[in-house]
Amino acid sequence: MRIEPISGRYVHIELEEREHRVYFEEAGEGIPLLCLHTAGSDGRQYRAVLNDAEITRRYRVIAFDMPRHGKSSPPAGWENEDYRLTTGRYTGMIMSVARALALERPVVMGCSIGGRIVLDLALEHAREFRALIGLQSGAFVERYYDPAWLDHPEVHGGRACGAVAYGLMSPLSPRSEVWETVWHYMQGGPGVFTGDLHFYQVEGDVRERIGEIDTSVCPLYLLTGEYDYSASPRDTQAVVDRVRGAKLTVMKGLGHFPMSENPEAFLRYLRPVLQEIHG
Amino acid sequence: MNETFMVEVGETQYLVTVAAGRIEKVERGPFVMRPWRFAIRASAEHWEKFWRDPPPPGWHDLFALLRRGEVAFEGDQRVLMSHLLYLKLALASLRAK
Fold it and tell me: How far is the alpha carbon of B60 from chain A, nearest alpha carbon, in Å?
C-alpha cells in the first residue's frame, strides 16, 4: 500500500466581501512554500513537489486551488457573472490565503499566470516574502488566439482547453505526465480558463513597471522551460534584462508546465534554488 | 470528425477527408472549386521544422506556429477549434520516426 504524505483541507477566506471555500494541500515542515497553479488548472500540478522528501524536510509546501478551480468552490452568485481574473483579485487572493494559514514570510512559487503574479508581488509586497520563484514568467503575452473559443456553447470546453494545454508542453516530456496535465485542463469549469487569461493576456501587463523590482528586498528566481512558446525563454530573458539581480534558469527539454509535465526533470532544477533560499 | 479540410504546404494543396474520426482520403491538388470546411496554411519550410522528430522548441505545435504568425487558419474556425486536439495529433503524426 502506498499513501502519499499530502493532506488536503479547506480554508474559508473573504474576498471582495464574499466568503470563499478554498481547497489546499500541504506536506512538510519548515519555510512555507506557497505554490500557484496555472490558468484553468489546479493545485494537483504540484503533486511531485508535495511528494519530494528532500524538499518537504525543510519546507512546508502548500498548493491551493484558486476559487472556481479544482476543489475550491465558486462564490455564491457565480451563475450571474462573467468571471475575469485581475491583478488586484489575484494578489488579494494570495495575500488572504497566506494570512489565513498564518504563513510567515513565505516563498511563493507560481507558474504561467502564477509566474506573472510573482512579478507583481515583487513590485507591491516584496517585504512580505522570503523569496519569489517564477516559472514560465513573462511581463506580458500578446493574444495569438482568441480564448473566446475556449468558452463557446458549440465547442467542448474541456477538449479545447486540453488541446491548448497539450501543445504548450515539450515533445520530450513523459507521455503519462503530459496527458495527466491535459486531464486537469479538461476538468476545468466553463469559462474559467478564459477568465484567467483575461489577467494573462489583457489586464496584467507589467512591462512598464518591472524595472522597479528590487531583488535586494526579496530575491527573484525565474525558471523557464525551453519548449514554452507562451512564455518563452526569450520573454523571461526580457524580464531579467530589466530586473537587476533576478536569476534565470532555462530548463532544457521542458515546456509550459514543468512541475507536472516532467516532475523529475523539474525537481532537478528546483532543489538547488530551494537550497539557496534556505541557506 | 466528419469533415473535409485543406492543408497547404507552401504551394501544394491537400484535401483531407475524415469520416467518423478516420482519415479516409488525402488528395493532392491543385483543385478546382472543391469545398472544404477550414484550411490550415503554412510554408513548406515551416512545416518541415514542425515535422522534425523531435521538433525544435517553438516549432513543436500548431499553436507554436500560430504564436510565430507562421500558420494561417481560414474557413469555419468553430469546427477547427472543436477538433483542435485531433488536428494537432493528426498533423504531428506525420513526424519522421
Answer: 7
